[in-house]
Amino acid sequence: MSLTLHFHPLASFCWKTLIAFYENGTPFEPVIVDLGDPVSREAFLKLTPIGKMPVLRDEARDMTVPESTIVIDYLDRLYPGRLRLMPTDPDLALQVRLADRFYDFYVHEPMQRFVADYLRPADRRDPYGVDQSRAQIESAYAIINADMATKQWAVGDVFTLADCGAFPALFYADKVSPLRDRFPDVRAYLDRLSQRPSVVRVLDEAKPYFHLFPVKEA
Ligand SMILES: N[C@@H](CCC(=O)N[C@@H](CS)C(=O)NCC(=O)O)C(=O)O
Q1: Is 10 in the pocket of ligand 1 (CB under 6 A)?
Q2: Which one of 16, 35, 90, 123 is separated from 101 by 20 to 30 angstroms, measured CA to CA?
Q3: Residue 30 predicted with pLDDT over 90
Q4: Which of 154, 190, 198, 159 has its CA nearest to residue 172?
Q5: Nearest residue (CA) to ligand 1, atom 18
Q6: Does ligand 1 lie within 6 Å of residue 102's CB atom?
Q7: Cα–Cα distance for residue pair 44/40, rounded to 1 Å
Q8: Over the stretch 158-181, which tens digit does the pLDDT of each residue have?
């Protein structure tokens, strides 16, 4: 098999690429990275010195592809499936890139910072930073709520790369800064995403690891 995905089943940015793989049934060999295991860690750092997952290895093209967005873009161009995750229409593709950046920068990354704070030693926590992350997520919720009032998926009627990234960002953001019933159109969008078979599969595969998620209640 040509494609190997290095990932962890609980890691949110890895979910983004897994959703893309499962949407199109693209075959790949899964390699679970355990950064707590010295052997797995060393092998992973050889592949990608920055140490961030997911990473795609394509033996057929002798390519190592880091960054979830770039992995999906790469698959869409070189191993396209039934569903084009990056639209061929340039205006729509721009909308997808903008939405993808929005979810990564203003939901996913603040959520990650929030979660990372829980993993710090008690005397190194950063309540000010956590408040900033929460405020960022809340501003993003308000923007998404207005935007999704008239849309099915992130850029309209078709499911794209932006939706692959929106699911993990919103799923975990909802754990650290709960949506409750404050943002009904974000909630409805998250519910629609949760029903995609690709997402159901990702959640099923993550279940055995959920106890490792450090935020029990926000
Ligand atoms: N911009 C990167 C972010 C990747 C990222 O932050 N991955 C996390 C897992 S969700 C990771 O590798 N964390 C390990 C670490 O920081 O040590 C992407 O889109 O792939």
Answers
A1: no
A2: 35
A3: yes
A4: 190
A5: 67
A6: no
A7: 6
A8: 999 999 999 999 999 999 999 999
